[in-house]
UniProtKB/TrEMBL annotation:
Family: Belongs to the WD repeat RBAP46/RBAP48/MSI1 family.
Region (Disordered): 1-36, 117-153
Highest taxon of source: Eukaryota
InterPro entries: Glutamate-rich_WD_repeat (IPR051972), Histone-bd_RBBP4-like_N (IPR022052), WD40/YVTN_repeat-like_dom_sf (IPR015943), WD40_repeat_dom_sf (IPR036322), WD40_rpt (IPR001680)
Pfam family membership, one: WD40
Residue span, Histone-binding protein RBBP4-like N-terminal domain: 45-112
Tagged with keyword Phosphoprotein: no
Record key words, sorted: Repeat, WD repeat
PROSITE patterns per record: WD_REPEATS_2, WD_REPEATS_REGION
Organism: Populus trichocarpa
SUPFAM superfamilies reported for this sequence: WD40 repeat-like
GO cellular component assignments: nucleolus
SMART domains: WD40 (SM00320)
Protein name: Histone-binding protein RBBP4-like N-terminal domain-containing protein
Length: 477
């Protein structure tokens, strides 16, 4: 496991006449120690340093106002891309100070550089510990130059005016230029961003964020049938144009694509939750089945063919259920994250509509101490998922891992280092990423194995941890 490390600040000292001990060379070096977020405390003369060797790639950027939600836009650059530099496309909605200042950003980040690293790093020299690692991009300059590119990504941005904050935004899987957005004003809109995506694809010039033009564009469709604002929204991965949206008044509406860039929205909502619907997820194997989670602590499984009541409804957490994720590679597995900081994994085969007892729980984690804000299964590894929390941590978990004393001893021998890993951490915890404040949402990139993008109050991060094996090239490549 790789985490941020703890090291002492360099003390500022005045040289005294005849006091040779004031030389910086006489200050003893401190051993590296694994730091446990939420457990260990920093001393007055200690600070956290980012370890750049923990990442194949790490970049930060922002598009102006903070974004509560974003989505990765599928592109035509290749289904499985492993070679740096990378190019990625996103859509994001802002949380501006005033309603009229908001916009939806459509942006392209190119020249995302990095380097594939060995799973077992070579031992660092004594001088490396004094390197300034505050800026991960600058630390990778020399390595990225070997890859044939600069370490600084190029951000190109186009903005579409939007009145009100965007609670959540999602791009359609089958037609990525079609996006749906939830507004805090209480309506859901459908947008066609093909013109902007095409313009970005043809352009190579970076535009300063402040100089970006704001386009006035009308949405394709605007639905005002919800009785309150909401956050829950999901496109069907199986049926193009099929959408579900849920609001804070516990109502869920089903959308069906119609001719002429229009949608038919069922005016009669799905009801069953007793509080706000927080998240929605379509099944990857069934056209009419979707899941929902709620502030009422329950998860519901719905079949649109069976009416407007849930087919299965069960207590999932002892607090609000904020987010859910349906595993696309193992369709029987559903993950959920709660306001109490816990997240759970369930096997849906063990659910029964006739039994009130929940026998489906296969894993329950209490690592995070603050609300879970986002959870998502990896699109490339069936046992891997990532979680973000209000504790400013993004964690990656591999549920197939178990503690192996012999393997740990072998790894320590190879690194030739003393790694004092805490014994009480879950063996499934693969990686901890920090450095962002007030993390809101994360997404894996479906076309770039090992890449995760996250948004927080202070901007976006693109990260590729070095210990996720799917990011490494196969032998002989």
């Amino acid at each position: 496991m790789v985490r941020s490390i703890k090291k002492p600040k360099k003390a500022k000292r005045k040289n005294k006449k005849g006091d040779e001990s004031s030389s910086s060379s006489s200050i003893p070096s401190m051993p590296t120690k694994v730091w446990q977020p939420g457990v260990d405390k920093l001393g007055e003369e200690e600070e956290l340093d980012c370890d750049p060797t923990a990442y194949n790639s790490l970049h930060a950027f922002h598009i102006g106002w903070p974004c509560l939600s974003f989505d990765v836009v599928r592109d035509s650059l290749g289904l499985l891309r492993t070679d740096f530099p990378h190019t990625v496309y996103f859509v994001a909605g802002t949380q501006a100070e005033k309603p009229d200042w908001n916009s939806i950003g459509i942006f392209k980040v190119s020249n995302v550089s990095g380097k594939q690293r060995e799973l077992v790093p070579s031992k660092t020299t004594a001088g490396d510990s004094d390197m300034d690692t505050d800026n991960s991009d600058s630390d990778e300059d020399s390595e990225d130059e070997e890859e044939g590119g600069s370490a600084t990504p190029v951000l190109q941005l186009r903005k579409v005016a939007h009145r009100g904050c965007i609670n959540r935004i999602r791009a359609m899987t089958q037609n990525p230029h079609i996006c749906a957005s939830w507004s805090d004003a209480g309506y859901v809109q459908i947008w066609d961003f093909s013109t902007h995506l095409n313009a970005l694809a043809e352009s190579e010039t970076e535009v300063p964020r402040g100089a970006s033009s704001v386009f006035n564009q009308a949405p394709l469709f605007n639905f005002k049938g919800h009785k309150d604002e909401g956050y829950a929204i999901d496109w069907s991965p199986r049926v193009a144009g099929r959408l579900v949206t849920g609001d804070c008044k516990n109502c869920i509406h089903l959308w069906e694509s119609a001719s002429g860039a229009k949608w038919n929205v069922d005016a009669t909502p799905f009801t069953g939750h007793t509080a706000s619907v927080e998240d929605l997820q379509w099944s990857s194997t069934e056209d009419h089945v979707f899941a929902s989670c709620s502030v009422d602590g329950h998860i519901a499984i719905w079949d649109a063919r069976l009416g407007k009541s849930p087919a299965i409804y069960f207590k999932a957490h002892n607090a609000d259920v904020n987010v859910i994720s349906w595993n696309r590679l193992a369709s029987v597995m559903l993950a959920s994250g709660s306001d109490d900081g816990t997240f759970s994994i369930r096997d849906l085969r063990l659910l029964s509509p006739k039994s009130e007892e929940d026998k489906s729980l296969v894993a329950h984690f209490q690592y995070h101490k603050h609300p879970i804000t986002s959870i998502e299964w990896s699109p490339h590894e069936a046992s891997t998922l990532s979680v973000s929390s209000s504790d400013n941590q993004l964690t990656i978990w591999d549920l197939s891992l178990e503690k192996d004393e012999e393997e740990e001893a072998e790894f320590k021998a190879k690194t030739k280092e003393q790694v004092n890993a805490p014994a009480d951490l879950p063996p499934q915890l693969l990686f901890v990423h920090q450095g962002q404040k007030d993390l809101k949402e994360l997404h894996w990139h479906a076309q770039i194995p090992g890449m995760i993008v996250s948004t927080a109050s202070d901007g976006f991060n693109i990260l590729m941890p070095s210990n996720i094996q799917s990011t490494l090239p196969s032998e002989g490549v």
